[in-house]
């Protein structure tokens, strides 16, 4: 009996090693164009991938991002000016196979987005880890017309590290994103044209994603305008599944909450008062010249 068990274990080992060798060999020599259509189906309608060369193991291409206004159009109907082109390169991650995922190290090289991330694609979800991406604030306005009205600028740093992963299902039409994981966001020289032409400050925020909600907390702030405390953002469907916004689904409203203290630190008292004035419309002045905020609103 023991000899039979040992033989079965050896057979299983050989089969697993054979399958791994087959997969590694396949991605090492298969042309990168094989993944183009699959990637585009997964990212539609928000982005498309155009392969320029290489193999599945290692290659390069261009990722085109589309604004929310043009994402509903078919690919052939989108004006080329609406596409934001991001040159990327990738390298296969064989260790992801141990987690039953097809993994890649991806590097972006663009004035708007630069950095690297590790992606693991499963049957139903996609994971991000080991991420350090630097994003120009101008990109946010180009992607979303409503954000462009505020006129944001500055440098955003998105970090997923220390063994954390962010997991999300593949985008589906009319379905809400259901995302889980932890990440950190850092903003340098944040400026909002509607508020002030000069930079408002630098901020570090810890974010916890839980389904259709994101909890956030300010961990550091410096500059002309400072915030502490935190809150949450809900983009609907607080249920325990990847629910849909289709009629008949169980949906909750989109909400934004924040509770904390805002303070201004400039060399000019009138300038500090000018920065805090818009916040007094939704908060209360404290005796030490700061603003106490307790915001709970729909969006």
Q: Topology of this protein?
A:
Blueprint (H helix, E strand, L loop, with lengths): L1 H28 L6 H8 L3 E8 L3 E9 L16 E11 L8 E8 L3 E9 L3 E12 L1 H6 L1 H6 L1 E9 L5 E4 L9 E14 L3 E16 L1 E10 L2 E3 L2 E6 L18 E11 L4 H12 L2 E3 L5 E8 L1
Antiparallel strand pairs: 1-2, 2-3, 3-4, 4-5, 5-6, 6-7, 6-8, 7-9, 8-9, 9-10, 10-11, 11-13, 12-14, 13-14, 14-16, 15-16
Number of helices: 5
Spatial extent as radius of gyration? 23 Å
Mean pLDDT: 82
- Overall morphology: elongated
Main sheet record: 16 strands, antiparallel
Percent helix: 10-25%
Beta fraction: over 45%
End-to-end C-alpha gap: 67 Å
Residue runs with pLDDT of under 50 for 5 or more positions: 70-81, 238-250
Computed structural class? alpha+beta
| Helix and strand pattern | HHEEEEEEHHEEEEEEEEHEE
For the secondary structure, the number of strands is: 16
What are its keywords?
16-stranded antiparallel sheet, single chain, elongated, 299 residues
Question: What would your notes on this structure say?
Answer:
Helices cover 20% and strands 47% of the residues. The chain has 299 residues and is an alpha+beta fold. Strand 5 (113-121) and strand 6 (125-136) form a beta hairpin. The protein is elongated and about 80 Å long. Mean pLDDT is 82; it is low at 70-81 and 238-250.
């Amino acid at each position: 009996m023991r000899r039979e068990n040992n033989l079965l274990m050896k057979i299983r080992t050989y089969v697993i090693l054979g399958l791994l060798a087959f997969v590694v060999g396949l991605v090492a020599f298969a042309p990168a164009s094989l993944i183009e259509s699959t990637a585009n189906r997964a990212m539609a309608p928000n982005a498309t991938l155009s392969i320029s060369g290489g193999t599945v193991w290692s290659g390069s291409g261009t990722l085109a991002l589309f604004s929310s206004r043009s994402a509903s159009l078919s690919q052939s109907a989108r004006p080329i000016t609406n596409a934001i082109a991001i040159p990327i390169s990738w390298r296969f991650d064989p260790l992801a196979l141990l987690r039953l995922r097809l993994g890649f190290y991806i590097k972006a090289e663009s004035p708007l987005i630069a950095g690297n991330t590790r992606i693991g694609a499963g049957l139903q979800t996609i994971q991000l880890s080991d991420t350090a991406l630097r994003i120009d604030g101008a990109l946010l306005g180009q992607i979303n017309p409503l954000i462009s009205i505020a006129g944001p600028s500055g440098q955003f740093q998105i970090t997923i590290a220390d063994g954390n992963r962010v997991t999300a299902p593949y985008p589906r039409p009319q379905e809400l994103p259901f995302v889980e994981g932890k990440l950190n966001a850092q903003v340098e020289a944040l400026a909002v044209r509607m508020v002030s032409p000069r930079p408002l400050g630098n901020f570090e925020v810890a974010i916890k994603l839980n389904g259709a909600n994101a909890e956030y907390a300010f961990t550091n702030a410096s500059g002309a305008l400072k915030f502490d405390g935190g809150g949450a953002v809900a983009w609907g469907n607080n249920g325990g599944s990847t629910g849909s916004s289709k009629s008949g689904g169980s949906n909750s409203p989109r909400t934004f909450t924040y509770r904390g203290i805002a303070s201004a630190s400039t060399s000019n008292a009138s300038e500090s008062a000018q920065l805090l004035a818009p916040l007094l419309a939704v908060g209360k002045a404290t005796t030490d010249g700061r603003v106490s905020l307790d915001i709970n609103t729909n969006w």
